[in-house]
């Protein structure tokens, strides 16, 4: 395995911390020959997210950056509108909760109360209103060089990560041009991207010059989250779902998937691609990175 | 790609139907050379599940077997207790809803109403009470031959599937001995296993002689669902999370992961393995099936 040189790692604002003791555990098992083996596996903890006094959801997460996860989740679910005045984000490790506080009651809390009054409860609401907040969203038509995709994939694959150390984890990376900036990983399907959304919101980072790279599938939820974050380009090693493609075309998201070695497919926004790389010059992937794939 | 011979397919009670027109769509894209390409991608639709008059959740699903999905989801969340009298399961394609009706109001609805009264609403409840229903569960100590794992992996990998056709999908297979019986696929993370749970409940199939095989990761949720179904063995191509392993050991679930070619690791219940296969005689995987992996 070829690891990143120091200078490349230094480029990251946030890189994975595969040696953090709280994120992995060594467990004992027996292999196919009956021999004892020790495995490094990732942790998985519940985290309950509150918006002011309202309990919203319990997410299963690896447990790093709980504040970013909570803020990003609420933002991507349109429960926090852009420009909402966040007055505090309080994480309590013992009770495994994060409370996100806003200056005034949010419209979401109000809506939830109304729905509760009219139909008894609103358990389904969080996931039912997925498309909300997406009306009228039209992402900026940012040009993107195909050489960036190849450079990003190579750099990200070489970066020491929990995936390389323990597997069974998703990775999502916020990038600008050919440079990966913030690399989040999580056991929860969409937590990695929510942590990036939280980081962007809390640091005031702009979105229109960014690319989001993910190891996961390009489902509707992934596409919606990227659009909610205002990022104009989403790229993945994995494949597409029909509805994900449809929404990407609707909001003007450049969507690139099935990136493996020199191959990729662009299904939305291909007129924005600047084809400055010769695919034939890109090496095929080695065995280890082929595994970082996933139809799944 | 070597496909299953007819006699093998005939062994299935339910096999994937990769040619069903409602499950995939062909979309246009451009590849890395700028050439037009047509891709087969899986569909993804919302399905809202009701328990009697109570809206429970909206799941994103490929859309086959909505009744099994609804019943299995409710059962695996302990909202339907075993022995609950299901009086009807009504799927409405136009509104994309399934209503599961029971003879009397379930304890879950009652609990939900109470929680709604005391704390305003219960959005987080569905996922917060994951461990509920698991108290005192102790799975039967079924012996399992290691030759079955190899035979199942080979058969399942050869079975024509939406994964082989379109990718970006999870597969879960209910097996007995070395024979795969019910093979479900879905875009939603846990829908495939919920559809199997629904099928088992609605057909009255016994669980104690079964093995569950999945392409996905062995997270806490996957382990809990398997335990809720009463199945004593869970096997996967993918890796583990720490909490998944912990719960498996607690409920006495035989847990086998990282199955690739001749390799596998058993982290719970290894005293039940009958090591009747010589790993050295098992061929390594070809490239196509290596991709059906997923740290993710």
What do you see in this structure?
- Two copies of one chain form a homodimer.
- The first copy, chain A, is built from ten helices and 14 strands.
- The radius of gyration of chain A is 20 Å and the shape is globular.
- Chain A has helices spanning 6-10, 66-76, 107-119, 125-128, 146-158, 162-166, 191-203, 220-228, 242-251, 287-291, and strands spanning 24-31, 36-42, 45-51, 54-61, 86-92, 97-102, 144-145, 170-176, 179-186, 211-214, 233-236, 254-260, 263-268, 273-274.
- In chain A, the strands form four sheets. A six-stranded mixed β-sheet of chain A has the order 9-8-10-11-12-13.
- With 296 residues, chain A is an alpha/beta fold.
- The two termini of chain A are 24 Å apart.
- In chain A, helix 2 packs across helix 7 and helix 8 packs parallel to helix 9.
- The first copy, chain A, is 30% helix and 28% strand.
- The longest helix of chain A is centred in the middle third of the chain and has 13 residues, at 107-119.
- In chain A, a hairpin with a 2-residue loop joins strand 12 (254-260) and strand 13 (263-268).
- Chain A folds into two domains: 45-128, Ubiquitin-like (UB roll) (Roll); 137-291, Cytidine Deaminase, domain 2.
